[in-house]
Amino acid sequence: MRHWHNRGGGVYYDTITVRWDIIPDFIVENIDPGTQKAEPGKIYTGMVYQETTYDDNIVKAEIPLELVNLKVTDISLSPNPGEPGQLASGVITVLNESEKGFSGVKVIWRVRRSDGTVLDENTIITDLAAGESKQLPFSFTPDRGDTYSVAAMVNPDGDWPPDEVNFLSGDWPGDNRNKNILEI
User: Fold this and answer.
1) Domain ranges of the chain
2) Considering the domain 70-183 in this protein, what is its CATH number?
3) Which of 7, 69, 103, 120 has the fewest other C-beta atoms within 10 Å?
4) Over the stretch 104-130, which tens digit does the pLDDT of each residue have?
5) What is the pTM of this model?
6) CB 157: neighbour CB atoms within 10 A?
7) What is the DSSP string of 107-154?
8) Are 180 and 145 contacting, i.e. CB atoms less than 8 angstroms apart?
9) Contact at 8 Å (CB) between 166 and 173?
10) CB atoms inside a 10 Å sphere around CB 93
């Protein structure tokens, strides 16, 4: 740290060494140089404001936060059990827990065979009003006797809405995904 002063018409600088290891609680709050621009021959008084406690260094403010949460609450299938070659229908129930509506929300559904291969999948684009629960129908045709896993996910890319609570908290997909089983 440099300290300057005027002695006999000349400006002199002294170097001040501060040993932070000796005074670890020393906090410089503000440095006021006493002027915006120094001019030769003039005397200025600067101030260093300090404090040695942390007690009043915390400022808290409550900021209301609107949490955005979309989720798949249920997947129902019929008939269950089904038949190979017979159309199986389902309904995906999605819920917007937010106080804000969204248009153009993606909901994907995917049907997998027991070996993990995908039999069918599709994307449904829907609008969800604030607090709305909506049922989205879908259908597929089982191709053989098997156990089928049907899964659905709302906002699969985490991009609309981008500030969804599960995506931001790292709990992705969290409650955005749900699944059900169909026996054939």
Assistant:
1) 2-51, 70-183
2) 2.60.40.10
3) 7
4) 999 989 998 999 899 999 999 999 999
5) 0.59
6) 10
7) EEEEEE-TTS-EEEEEEEEEEE-TT-EEEEEEEE---SSSEEEEEEEE
8) no
9) yes
10) 16
